[in-house]
Design goal:
about 290 residues, alpha+beta, seven-stranded antiparallel sheet, four-stranded antiparallel sheet, 7 helices, about 25% strand
């Protein structure tokens, strides 16, 4: 694996002053297109990413055919018949979609991730407290590939590096787009994919991403992605916060309460609104009432 030669590659800011100001305004609740100056990098060529995919544990690699419907059950997603390395190297004609998860497991990519996050850390920590569990994901997609409708538990900025894509986002915390029971199931071991309804199409916000564009996606904001006519490479830099962990704990507790025949109230979007349930749930886990 090639190494970043030195920190000189990042002497200039990837996120400029205007982008940081815009991020400060939108974070942590509003999806927002931002600008970035992430140029071509030796760790982000297709050959380097193919090597990374082969080096990562199988649990950190996901790939499948790209011509999927926006709404598809996880168990219905077929295999594409190739290795992850071949999928990436042949991505232009592979009709596939691939994600390399937790790239920070490889030191060179961890360095890249942390250098990028350090630029925005003061802003995010002022809003949601200490930056926790930084993680990176790289998406490599064939032309016209679709990432199905889903949500994610992290705060996320996705940087578009090659090709173009359209991400359609929906408000986080709105049960119309992701019912409370679905949230609860996810935080107790369920899948991130959501149930799609065609009537949602006109209600989402479509964001056009090209090289030099990025998008901030709030915690658990439903979204799906469609790639343009050329292959796409995107880098997703993510982190957790007390906020995201508090919401996850309350959702898990609500799942437990619902199993007892109760109808629990959905968590608020701010940690202090969830403090009591969070403390109770963590105490229950500590003493072994739940696992």
């Amino acid at each position: 694996m090639n190494k970043i030669s030195d920190k000189a590659e990042f002497d200039r800011s990837i996120f400029g002053a205007e982008t940081k100001d815009n991020f400060d305004v939108c974070y942590p609740e509003q999806a927002q297109v931002l600008e970035h100056k992430m140029a071509a990098h030796e760790l982000l060529t297709l050959d380097a990413l193919a090597d990374l995919g082969a080096a990562l544990p199988k649990t950190s690699v996901e790939y499948n055919p790209g011509d999927l419907p926006v709404g598809i059950a996880p168990e219905d997603v077929p295999d594409n018949g190739m290795s992850i390395a071949d999928t990436i190297r042949l991505i232009e004609n592979a009709n596939s979609w691939a994600v390399l998860k937790n790239i920070e497991q490889v030191p060179e990519y961890q360095n890249l991730l942390l250098l990028l996050l350090e630029e925005i850390r003061p802003i995010l920590e002022n809003k949601t407290g200490k930056m926790l569990r930084p993680q990176g994901f790289i998406f490599v997609s064939s032309p016209d590939a679709v990432t199905p409708y889903h949500f994610d538990p992290e705060h996320n900025i996705l940087l578009q590096l090659r090709g173009e894509k359209w991400m359609t986002t929906f408000p986080a915390g709105n049960p119309r787009y992701a019912p409370d029971e679905v949230h609860e199931g996810y935080h107790t071991g369920g899948h991130r994919n959501l149930i799609w309804k065609d009537c949602f199409e006109a209600e989402g916000t479509k964001h056009h991403l090209t090289p030099g564009k990025a998008i901030f996606v709030p915690v658990m904001a439903p979204h799906y992605v469609k790639v343009g006519s050329e292959h796409s490479v995107s880098l997703s830099i993510t982190w957790r916060s007390d906020w995201s962990f508090a919401e996850a704990d309350v959702r898990a507790m609500n799942h437990w309460l619902r199993g007892k025949g109760l109808s629990p109230k959905a968590p608020g979007r701010w940690p202090e609104q969830n403090r009591a349930k969070t403390l109770v749930w963590r105490a229950m886990r500590k003493i072994g009432v739940v696992r």
